[in-house]
Amino acid sequence: MEILTPCYSKEEFACRGDDLYERNVRPQIKQSDDRKFVVIDIDTGDFEIDADELVAGDRLRKSGAQMWVTRVGSRYARRFR
Q1: Is the dihedral of CA 24, 26, 31, 34 positive or negative?
Q2: Which of 4, 50, 61, 80 could form a disulfide with 56 if both were Cys (CB 3.0 to 4.6 A apart)?
Q3: Enclosing domain of residue 17
Q4: Are the C-beta atoms of 70 and 77 separated by less than 8 Å?
Q5: 71 forms bridges with which residues in the sheet?
Q6: Is residue 2 a part of any domain in this protein?
Q7: Model's pTM, two decimal places?
Q8: Residue 78 domain-assigned (yes or no)
């Protein structure tokens, strides 16, 4: 398995991910995508949507993506209690 080195600070990473989600992904979201995971390559803007976070990530990982993960209809991909 290839180990990816982060190219951005945590703040820049989050800012780029949120911006790409709002500009490129959100307009393409369908009602049937609610609660699915969105994985975005913050370098290219490519993204995948799937109910399974790992499946969506695996489709992007093949390109060496810097991946930002979020969930449709939520501010967070996961919630810890």
Answers
A1: positive
A2: 50
A3: 10-71
A4: yes
A5: 37
A6: no
A7: 0.84
A8: no
